């Protein structure tokens, strides 16, 4: 098994092992720019609005189910 340990104190390049194996470094190590368009932002906002409305609906349904269970248990304990 190949084990690679970073050698920071010796001044060795920590990323040289990627080049030895002909692999690219992970994306988090790569430097670059990102372009975000208005369309991307609008699509993300629409998606978030839909998620929020679904979560709100689930909250309302959960509240009614909880009230139903409370009433059912109350009636069951009285009888």
UniProtKB/TrEMBL annotation:
Record InterPro entries: TUNAR
TM ranges: 54-76
Alphabetically ordered keywords of this record: Membrane, Transmembrane, Transmembrane helix
Superkingdom, natural source: Eukaryota
One Pfam family, short name: TUNAR
Name of the protein described by the UniProt record: Uncharacterized protein
Native source species: Liparis tanakae (Tanaka's snailfish)
């Amino acid at each position: 098994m190949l084990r690679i340990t970073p050698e920071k104190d010796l001044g060795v390049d920590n990323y040289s092992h990627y080049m030895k194996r002909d692999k690219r470094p992970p994306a988090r190590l790569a430097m670059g720019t990102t372009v975000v368009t208005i369309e991307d932002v609008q699509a993300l906002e629409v998606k978030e609005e839909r998620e929020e409305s679904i979560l709100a609906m689930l909250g309302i349904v959960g509240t009614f189910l909880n009230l139903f269970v409370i009433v059912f248990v109350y009636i069951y304990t009285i009888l």
